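Annex B. Sample input.
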Amino acid sequence: MAEGAVLITGATGLLGTEVVSRLLAITSREIYALVRADSETEATSRLRSFWWDDAVLADEVGNRVHPVVGDITKPLDIT
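Annex B, continued. Sample output.
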């Protein structure tokens, strides 16, 4: 993760979507969005499908918004 980057959980929800939108508007930071998915491709697709009605958000997936596959409700496996 780049220095000064932001990690967002809940990016596909109402509040998370608003936070990402505002961060894109007022900062130049890279944004990493934790998304429940089995692969990065699926995570990217999920973000774009949740943000289909906001072209700015959808277009930033893969640019300044980087999907991170994960589930905050599961234990972290760092082995």
